[in-house]
Design brief:
Radius of gyration of chain B: 30 Å
Helix content of chain B: 40-55%
Mean pLDDT of chain B: 78
Number of strands of chain A: 2
CATH class of one domain in chain B: Mainly Alpha
Strand content of chain B: under 5%
Largest sheet of chain B: none
Oligomer: heterotrimer
Strand content of chain A: under 5%
Distance between the termini of chain B: 79 Å
Shape of chain A: globular
Chains: A mainly alpha, B mainly alpha, C mainly alpha
Number of helices of chain B: 5
Mean pLDDT of chain A: 85
Chain lengths: 417, 145, 669
């Protein structure tokens, strides 16, 4: 007797499914491990992870959130590109169309805007977390450098995106921002000219920023993110109790996955792998890690949707080069810089930011001692933590000052007045 | 995830929202006035006329008031020279009949079977102006009702 | 170690999942109940009550977003998405936003060519009430104008000085012309217009010295309708300015003047004052014309000798004055002067002080400095002093000025260009203490009218096809004897030719030779009587010489002609006259025109109209009065050619006090 039709259909579907997902919905630990390893998307995680990785208070999932935000930005950004004309004044008009006519246009734009701002914050916090837990210590020095570059790229993406609405806010924020760039000695004016495609913001600038924002920077970002995550995967997650020396491979309840460990054995062993190798302290990434990641993603989506419904992305009058607002402010994440520029153009606009970036890049090669890695505010690192926290706090204070406490002519105002 | 952690996570989400919401609320002071508009309204809203009726009032003064009087009471300067005398528009029943009124204004009183003393304005005034005049006449009869 | 997920995660997943579903359906819902969707649903319900099923079926396809694209004006107006009945008269009484557009504005301004925002302002791209900026909104530069100021947008296209369907704008522009704002400001649309205050060359011999400081301090204190503003001068400034002005005696009083003032007969002066029709241009005690200065307190101001010589030849002292030169004898002039100075003063002004001679050259120079700095030369001619040009800033594009750049002072006023212009016109020093602009003491409504007219001067250039312009009329400067007479009697102060000239008279002279008969013109010039009894401003009694009157009549009947009127065949039959007489009764002409002793006095007396008007003109006038005199009280009866001819025949026959003469005599002269 032939099997029933439904059964055959299910069979057919399942075989089709198996051509895509080699392993079906994993039922056994073996399958779970295999699912993680055989999937292109999932194999960025190891099959088993240390339990401490699941503790939200260790990483606060900041890296994950950054990645999710990048995903959201890519998707909403692609949708927005369908309606955007990178030429003034059509650019501004397409913003109005998004707001008033395009179905879901306003939500898309709001979400793109708030995700971009959130990403700057989250990436910054992520960097702070990495510092405070000493996670840039060998062997992760280079990944810290990649992280710093990613932070700069995030700022660049946000900055180039800022001009695209072509309203007063955009126009003057970019004017101020690019003027800060012009303070750089020798090359400042050339850099500004290169950025603007001229001496003033105009149609060429808009096109340049559009291409940077939609093609060049996202491509660079994607490559660096891949590198960043790959390094995390190879170096392992930091953060278990520090163990001295390499830990032996232990055959656990599952067969050691040949591939990953094979590669690992080819590579130089981490000098101070802080990942626990105690199989009793490990759980399967499927479902423990994935489940939590799913929850984080959901939470991010909920928050962003809510933000996008409650707060409208600003859109002021169309850009008018003859109407300078007072005060003209850079995008908020550069307002700390602008505040510094207010005191001294050379120091604030050039020396301090250059020193900061150089210091960040050089940090893991200077501070090489393994002490205190993998723990929040390790007492051994009190000195460096204090210095870093102070600098970060000053930056935050400057930014808040520039954002909220500065009025016309950059005079001090109380925001609640 | 312990309850404490969950609470903390919720706090992390809610707190910035609250801060943001608080930052966006502004106490609104007394809204600024529109000096020019107020000046025009102070002048033009005398008598509570609508814009159209106000325009009609000007037209009435120019074209009609010599006979019908500034207030439409039939007491214009030229009224004493007329036989029959112009009616008091504020009480006239006919003046409240919009179709009748329009006919008299555009085609003259002769078209309504009255004396020929009230001339036709349909060719001299634009349709817009006649609408204004009608509006003023309506306001005139209403205010005196 | 358990290898399955803990329950708390499931709970969190359920909660977050639900939250996500909720918020996502909120997003969907939000889009589904967009302002315009619900509005359109409401419209369908109203439409069903207004239209019959056939019309409904035809209208069924209309829905969704509706927009008007105006490529030339660079706008997209989506107002029609909600204002669905705007161009459909059947929604005349429907509630907003569905009501059809009032008036006939959409006939004169088709909606697919003009859209909505060019007239109304607001954000045309928006599809909801708030963002369309029906009320002022942040970041919307031009929110919708209330009806009270909407005429400022008429002026953007209608650049001719008069815009008939925009009375407020008209009023504002008239005020600008009267007040001479363009003397100090460059105002687009008012180019070529000139404004003259009196020349000051002989001020030292013109005015009594004690009068000047009060005038400089506050011109309105002497002359309520003074066109000169209050320059808010300090007492020191007034002292030196006075020294400078009173030392101006470039033009001496007429020489060889032998007037025996003791014999002056003020009663004769009073009679002359009435006869000359001075009040057509000058007001006394609040009544009279506004072209010349009010004379109510002239005795406080001017010197006797100066007034005498001015009345004798106004143009010698004031070449730009609108005042005509009467042909009066010295005795008449003496009596008139004596009457004016005695009758019109605030009290016994005492004997005339002798002219002051200023020795303090420093004070005179300081006064000259102030004179130049405050731009007095913009309005007043003074000997060799050059007109320094327009001292005030250009008002080009003032309607689009960025409010952020304007000093608003401390008042709690919405920052708009409108309000700024208004406040500035009203009290220039309230906005800027150091403002050079004088205070003109406009009433708030006058300031608002002027502000409205100025707000219509926009920065952006509209496409030519939208602009309704009117070029400045070319000047009319006839030569020869007639030209001299036109200059002497200042015909163009009141009358216009080809649009050039004054507007006090309702009779332009373009075709006057085809309107009036030769004999009537010369007779009328010698002794102008009232044509329309009810009109107060009348032609002055020039005391013209007979051959001067003939010269003018000759010129008019040979040059100022309209051939189309002259070609009229003026041989009428007796039947025409009879029919015309019947028509005269039928049409109710008697309501406004006097014939003999019967009739109203709204229009001209017709008793001897046959002596006065040429038949071609009568016929043309009756056929289309609006063409010749927009806004006239003569109604357009829509007469047929035969009826017009009959009426013309009848009117032409009325000569000599209303007695019809025979048709044969009524022919062309």
């Amino acid at each position: 007797m032939k099997p029933p039709l439904a059964h055959r259909a299910a069979e057919w579907l399942s075989s089709a499914g198996r051509s895509v997902f080699r392993i079906g919905w994993p039922q056994t630990d073996k399958d779970r491990a295999a699912a993680m390893i055989s999937s292109f998307f999932l194999h960025i995680h190891p099959a088993r992870v240390s339990r401490h990785v699941l503790r939200p208070t260790y990483t606060f999932a900041l890296g994950l959130i950054s990645a999710i935000l990048f995903g959201i930005l890519s998707i909403t950004g692609l949708a927005l590109m369908l309606y955007y004309v990178p030429y003034p004044p059509e650019a501004y008009r397409s913003m109005k169309d998004l707001q008033f006519v395009v179905t879901f246009g306003m939500v898309l734009r709001n979400m793109h805007r708030w995700s971009a701002h959130a990403m700057v914050v989250i990436v910054f916090l992520h960097m702070c977390r990495v510092f405070w837990t000493g996670s840039y210590k060998p062997p992760r020095e280079f990944n810290w450098v990649v992280g710093v570059l990613l932070f700069l790229l995030t700022l660049g993406l946000s900055f180039t995106g800022y001009l695209l609405p072509w309203d007063q806010l955009a126009f003057w924020a970019i004017t101020v921002g690019t003027n800060i760039a012009a303070y750089a000695p020798v090359v400042g004016d050339q850099v500004k000219f290169l950025l603007l495609g001229g001496h003033m913001i105009g149609p060429m600038t808009l096109l340049r920023f559009y291409v940077l924002h939609c093609v060049i920077l996202p491509a660079a970002m994607l490559m660096l993110i891949s590198l960043h995550v790959w390094r995390v995967r190879k170096d392992g997650l930091s953060g278990a109790l520090a163990q001295t020396g390499a830990v032996e491979e232990v055959a656990g309840v599952f067969p050691p996955s040949s591939k990953t460990y094979g590669l690992m054995s080819l590579s130089r062993r981490p000098r101070a792998s802080v990942e626990s190798r105690d199989p009793n302290d490990e759980v399967f990434a499927w479902p423990h890690l994935l489940y939590r990641e799913l929850l984080v993603a959901l939470a991010v989506l909920v928050v962003l949707h809510a933000l996008s419904l409650i707060f409208m992305a600003p859109l002021e009058e169309i850009a008018d080069p003859t109407r300078t607002p007072n005060p003209a402010k850079a995008p908020w994440y550069f307002l700390g810089l602008q505040e510094l520029v207010h005191y001294s153009a050379l120091i604030g606009g050039v020396i301090v930011p250059t020193l900061l970036v150089v210091a960040l890049l050089a940090l893991p090669y200077v501070d090489r001692g393994p002490a205190g890695a993998g723990r929040w505010f390790a007492p051994e690192r009190r000195m460096s933590n204090t210095v870093f926290t102070l600098i970060a706090a000053v930056l935050v204070v400057l930014t808040v000052t520039g954002t909220l406490f500065r009025g016309p002519n950059w005079a001090w105002v109380w925001p609640w007045r | 995830m312990s309850r404490r952690q969950a609470t903390r996570a919720v706090g992390v989400v809610i707190l910035p929202l609250l801060v943001a919401a608080g930052g966006c609320r502004r106490t609104s002071p007394t809204p600024p006035g529109d000096a020019m508009l107020d000046a025009i309204r102070a002048e033009e809203r005398v008598g509570g006329l609508s814009y159209g009726a106000g325009q009609g009032k000007h037209l009435f003064a120019q074209y009609c008031a010599t006979c019908h009087g500034d207030e439409g009471r039939g007491d214009g300067q030229n009224a004493s020279n007329l036989n029959p005398a112009p009616p008091d528009l504020t009480t006239s029943k006919n003046a409240r009949d919009a179709a009748y009124l329009r006919r008299v204004i555009t085609q003259g009183s002769a078209a309504a079977g009255r004396s020929a003393l009230s001339p036709p304005w349909g060719r001299s005034l634009s349709a817009q102006q006649i609408d204004y005049l009608m509006a003023y006449c309506a306001a005139m009869t209403q205010s005196k009702r | 170690m358990k290898q399955t997920a803990p329950t708390s995660l499931h709970v969190a997943f359920a909660a977050l999942g639900l939250a996500f579903l909720a918020i996502f359906s909120w997003v969907l819902f939000h889009e589904g109940v967009a302002d315009w969707r619900t509005t359109q649903a409401r419209f369908r319900r109203i439409e069903a009550t207004v239209k019959n099923p056939h019309q409904l079926a035809a209208a069924a396809s209309v829905g969704g977003l509706r927009q008007i694209w105006l490529p030339e004006l660079d706008r997209v107006d989506r107002c029609g998405t909600c204002h669905l009945g705007i161009d459909d008269p059947s929604f005349a009484g429907a509630p907003q936003p569905f009501s059809s557009h009032p008036g006939t504005w959409l006939t004169t301004h088709p909606i697919d060519r003009f859209g909505c925002t060019p007239c109304h302002d607001g954000q045309g791209q928006a599809t909801d009430y708030l963002n369309a900026a029906h009320q002022p909104q942040p970041f919307v530069t031009r929110p919708m104008r209330p009806l009270e100021t909407i005429e400022a947008n008429c002026g953007a296209c209608h650049r001719a000085i008069d815009a008939p369907d925009a009375p407020r704008l008209d009023e504002g522009r008239a005020l600008i012309v009267q007040s001479g704002c363009f003397s100090c400001h460059d105002i687009p649309g008012f180019d070529g217009l000139t404004f003259h205050g009196p020349a000051l060359d002989s001020l030292g011999s013109k005015v009594r010295p004690e009068w000047l400081p009060g005038w400089l301090k506050n011109p309105k204190g002497y002359l309520e309708r003074s066109k000169m503003g209050n320059f808010r001068l300090s007492n020191d400034e007034i002292t030196v300015l006075q020294a400078f002005l009173l030392s101006q005696r470039a033009i001496p009083p007429l020489e060889g003047m032998t007037v025996d003032w003791k014999k002056a007969d003020t009663a004769n002066g009073r009679a002359l004052f009435g006869e000359l029709r001075c009040v057509s241009c000058h007001a006394v005690n609040g009544r009279g014309g506004t072209m010349g200065p009010e004379l109510t307190r002239i005795g406080d101001k001017v010197r006797r000798d100066w007034l005498f010589s001015f009345l004798k030849d106004p143009h010698r002292v004031q070449p730009e004055t609108a005042m005509l030169q009467y042909r009066l004898t010295d005795v008449q002039l003496r009596d008139l002067t004596a009457f004016l100075l005695e009758e019109y003063r605030s009290g016994d002004t005492g004997p005339e002080p002798p002219p002051v001679t200023y020795q303090d050259a420093r004070a005179v120079m300081a006064g000259r400095g102030i004179f130049e700095r405050r731009g007095c030369t913009s309005c007043h001619r003074l000997g060799a002093m050059k007109n320094t040009g327009r001292i005030g800033p250009s008002l080009a594009g003032i309607g689009d000025r960025n409010p952020d750049e304007l000093a608003f002072g401390r008042g709690n006023v919405r920052r708009t260009a409108d309000n700024y212009i208004f406040l500035k016109v009203l009290h220039p020093d309230a906005l800027l203490q150091t403002s050079m602009m004088p205070t003109f003491d406009f009433a708030p409504i006058e300031a608002a009218r002027i502000a409205l007219a100025l707000a219509s001067i926009r920065k952006a250039d509209l496409p030519v096809s939208y602009v309704r312009n009117r070029p400045m009329p070319p000047p009319f400067t006839p030569a020869g004897h007639f030209g001299e007479l036109v200059t002497r009697y200042r015909c163009l102060s009141c009358h216009s030719v080809g649009g050039f000239g004054g507007t006090l008279s309702t009779v332009p002279l373009d075709r006057i030779g085809s309107q009036l008969k030769h004999d009537y013109i010369s007779k009328y010039l010698l002794n102008p009587g009232a044509v329309r009894v009810s009109v107060e401003a009348r032609m002055p009694f020039f005391h013209m010489l007979p051959d001067e009157a003939t010269t003018i009549a000759d010129y008019m009947t040979s040059v100022l002609l309209d051939d189309t009127l002259d070609r009229y065949d003026a041989t009428f039959s007796e039947a025409d006259v009879q029919r015309g007489q019947d028509l005269y009764t039928q049409l109710g002409c008697v309501g406004c025109h006097q014939l003999g002793t019967v009739g109203g006095y709204v229009g001209p007396v017709l008793s001897d109209v046959g002596d006065r008007l040429r038949p071609g003109w009568i016929a043309a006038w009756l056929a289309n009065p609006e063409r010749y005199k927009p806004g006239t009280l003569q109604p357009d009866y829509g007469l047929s050619a035969a009826d017009a001819r009959a009426l013309t025949a009848y009117l032409s026959s009325l000569v000599d006090g209303g007695r019809p003469k025979s048709a044969e005599q009524g022919g062309r002269q």
